[in-house]
Amino acid sequence: TSSPAPPATAPSDPRCSKERALAAAMYSGRGLDEQACSPQVTFTDPVARCSGRREVSEAFRALTFCRPEHVEAPRANFIDDLTSTVDLHQRYFSCALLPSGLVVRSTLLVRRRAADGLVCELEERWNGALLFGWVAFRWARRVNGMLSSLLTPLLLR
To answer: What is the pLDDT of residue 4?
Structure first.
């Protein structure tokens, strides 16, 4: 039997089409649009915190090795003039041995600077859960982000 069709989702809010396009590119293996981001942009997820265009760009270059694909098209949600979220439903590591891959739902929080509208903060929340804010978790994420930025260019070519 065939698998059921994915549930219909509400359309993206047109007020945050740029955020949707940015996330769609980042999470499909096309990388970060650096021109849309401030030089000090940060990306944080439960595992790592990358700081600056170079580190964030490297994180999404390295993501291409996980073979990312959209299960459903990203859906953007307007919060306010400087903040939006993008709902993501992704598959990673799909291959002959693991055809269904690893399927993940997450929410990407996107914040822009008021002065120029450039993206200054990206925060990925797996299953929509807030990140632990304790100092030890923040420190561990930052160390992991720095190490990943240094090592992935050497390991993933």
So the answer is: 42
Considering the entire predicted model, what is its pTM?
Answer: 0.88
CA angle 36, 151, 64 (to 5 degrees): 50
Q: Which of 134, 142, 138, 153 is nearest to 52 (CA)?
A: 142
For the residues of 32-72, what is the DSSP string, one character each?
A: --GGGEEEEEEEE-SS-EEESHHHHHHHHHHHGGG--EEEE
Condensed to tens digits (0 to 9), the pLDDT of residues 65-109 reads 999 999 999 999 999 999 999 999 999 998 888 889 999 999 999
Q: Is 137 helix (H, G, I), strand (E, B) or coil?
A: helix
Query: Which of 48-52, 57-61, 145-149 is the least confident region?
Result: 145-149
Q: How many residues does the chain have?
A: 157
**Start-end of H helices in the chain:** 17-26, 53-63, 135-155
Distance CA 130, CA 85 (A): 13
Whole-angstrom distance, CA of residue 49 vs CA of residue 123 = 9
Of 31-35, 47-51, 145-149, least confident by mean pLDDT is 145-149
Pair 74, 23: CB distance under 8 Å: yes
Q: Answer whether 28's CB lies under 8 Å from 20's CB.
A: no
